[in-house]
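User: Second chain of the day. Same drill as before.
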Amino acid sequence: MNRKMNKNMKLPKSIKETQDGLAKKKFSAVQLVDEYLTRIEKYDGKINSFLTVSDELAYKQAKNVDKKIEDMGLKAFEEYPLLGVVVAHKDLFLVKGIRTTAGSKVLEDFIPTYSATIVKRLENAGAITIGKTNCDAWAHGASGENSDFGATTNPWNTEYVPGGSSSGSAAAVAAQFSLMTTGTDTGGSIRQPANFCGVVGFKPTYGAVPRYGVIAMASSLDSVGHFGQTVEDVEKMFEITKGEDKKDSTVINVKSKSPKTKLKIGIPKEYFIDGIDPEVKKSVEEATEIFKKQGVELVSVSLPHTKYAISVYYILQPAEVSSNLGRYDGIRYGKDRTSMGAEAKRRIMLGTYMLSAGYYDAYYLKAQKVRSKIIEDFDEVFKQVDAIIAPVSPTPAFKLGEKTEDPLQMYLADILTAAANIAGIPGLAIPSGSTRKGLPLGFQLMGARFSEDVLFKLGRLYQKSINWDPKGAF
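Assistant: Same format as last time:
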């Protein structure tokens, strides 16, 4: 279908703008969907952020949104807090009747018969599902280049990677193909692509949001979270998706707390080591100064076991991957294992080796012990401060193909994000500017378990202080 863009219509930059526009009849939900689909059709050929566009479902849901507004007026927005908000899902999230591939040829033709809890909660809140976004196959990757359906590119410069594994989700928000998207973060797979694409990315506490209906990668590390243009929007999405669903036994209900008036941010010396790109370091330092001007106290802290985090991660994660991918045997559903890509095979072999007799104690058990030390480090620091600030990645986005021939270099892209997953703590990636080449820069805030409200308060404070005005990549 050849659609034409409506030159008189500006896509909203937030949930509030979306709902204000719908309430004031500036546009209908159907017109909104039409505009997003037009952008996808026109621009996504170069970016490859979508694997499946669910236009029929989106139009059906949009018509229901318009009817609710017509029948209920402004009360519709009270009853359905995400009414009319367009959302896309990482292709690990099951959406009933919509193809779900996990970025792998193994599941190329898989159509789920039910939706993930998070998908249902967003749709029940009035959100419109526009499609499924590209990702590194099985979420194995830090660049978006491991998808069996082709790499995603960075909307700000298509010669660069968008980050991974939630590559399409970050790129889709940056390119204004969808207002919000979902993602998973096992070692940085929300925060790093958010950072590379200049959008907000949020990884909740492990056990805050149900993972039922989300294809597993490494079950003790996986968190499901959100992308948006503003901290406020991501917070609203989290409020709707969090809490028990009786299907994910790791999830508990935690009541929101009001953060203290006077907050302290820790600056961990281990996150500002040699090798950090000067522009990345300067950007984080500038963000700390903005917090200081807003009355936030800055404290130097130490997380001594941080240097072991990436080693621990690449023992625990492949071990759990080798177990989780065992179900994809080509017998029950999907294609057989010959369809597995090189990275999946690499992680299965590494994980199986780590768990084998004679090596379990030397690697897996030792890694679990070091994991406990990393958790203790964070527990001690959060007795002194309310959050810590750090770079998300040692560098800005790198060029496509730059690290594909060296898996170890690619694995090191997670060096500043993996510790949060090992400890199960929340992390919030916030954009803060751009490099001389025009690539996005940003920083991350991390907090104690279930301290999401603290991170959101600090994130809102920062964006308000700089008068954050989201701009699409084109």
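The chain has one domain: 15-465.

User: Great, on to the next one.
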